Each structure stands twice: as structure tokens, then as C-alpha cells.
Amino acid sequence: MRRLEKHRSKKYSSQIFTYSVILIVVVLFLATIGFKFLISTSLFISRLSQRGANGTPNNNNETVILFEPELFNPPSATNTATLQISGNTTPNTELSIYINDSEQKKLTPTTYTFETEVELTKGENTLYILAVHKETKKQKQSRIYKILYKDGKPTLEMTTPADGDTVRTDEVQIVGKTDADVLVHINTFPVITLADGSFSHTVKLQEGENKIIISARDIAGNEEQKELTVSYQKSD
Asked: Is residue 60 in some structural domain?
């Protein structure tokens, strides 16, 4: 009887493991290509519904479904003026891409996806896409995307210690200031910054000369870096 219970328990555990693996595979599929596949499939089916029995497009404009164009994961900020964008649309539509309410580019995708480049101006840019169906003249506008273009490095000012300082303790307080909303790392460790960009962090020193690297990186990917040399000498 005990052997039968062990067999059932082992079989049950094996089934749980198998179901868990299947669940993980399904989740990974949906999180990567599955979602885009479902969108493309629905667009394809919609396109087929617009065609008659002989495979030619229907003349009834009411049957045409025009989907709102959408970008794939556009960045909120960038440090380059030329931005590569891609997204979903309805085939047989003419896309007009607007940057800061000015039409910058036209294209006519032959598939359900599109890819192109746009040029940004410094500062915050608004981007949206207007899709016009070539046959029905129906229109759909995408939502408005806001993208910051910034190519200047953030400021990084060090208060203490000074480069080349010698201390008598095995710790030193690094104090400095950068711009607001900037990520600071000291020797690869993230450091908390206040609302005004000021920060402080204690670094453990080894006896002798110590190299300390401070980096500041903004949301656009621009980075400033400084290196300090601090020597630790034990007190006699």
C-alpha cells in the first residue's frame, strides 16, 4: 500500500512539473512574439473579410475596417536626432508621420507592419501618425507619442573629497551634485539622489591608493563620468 502511494505521489509530481513547463512556455510565447502574431492574424482576417468571393476587394466602404496605427515601444527619450520607428497599420493605407504637428514623411506599407526613420528636434517632440485608406479615404490617427531628444551630458560636480586627497580612516564620504532625474553610480553601485540632484555615499577604502569612479546618466542615455583618487593611510 505504501509503495502504491509513493508511485501515485511521484506520478502527481511529474504531472505538476510538466504542466508548469507548458505554462512557462505559453507565457514566454505570448510575451514575445505571441501578442504581435495575434494582432497580425486579426488584421489579416479583417483584410480577407473586405474581399468578395472572387478575391477582389468589396466596393462597400462600410465593410472596410481601418485600424489605428501604433508604434512598437517608442522611447520616451533619446540622445540621437535620427530615430528608427516601427509599428502596426492596415495595408493599403497611406501613412503621414507628423513631428511637432508638421508632416515629415509619407509611406504606403504593403504589409501590416512598417518601419522608417524620422528626424527629431532638440527638446520634447510630439509624434503621431495619420492613416488614410487609399480606396475608402477613411482616416485613423494614432495616439500622440512624446519623445525627448537631448544630446548634452548631465552636469556632475564633486564637493568632497578632492582628487588626490589622503585620509586617515578606511571610509570616505563622496558628496556631489548633478541634474534632477539623473541616475548616479559610484563604482557601479547605484546612489540615491535628492530632488535637486544632490547625493552622498560612503565608500570603503583599502590601504593605499583608491580609484573612485562617479557616473551620472540621464534618461536619454547621455553620461558624464569623473574619477577621483583617494589614498588611505593608517594613523601612526
From this structure: no
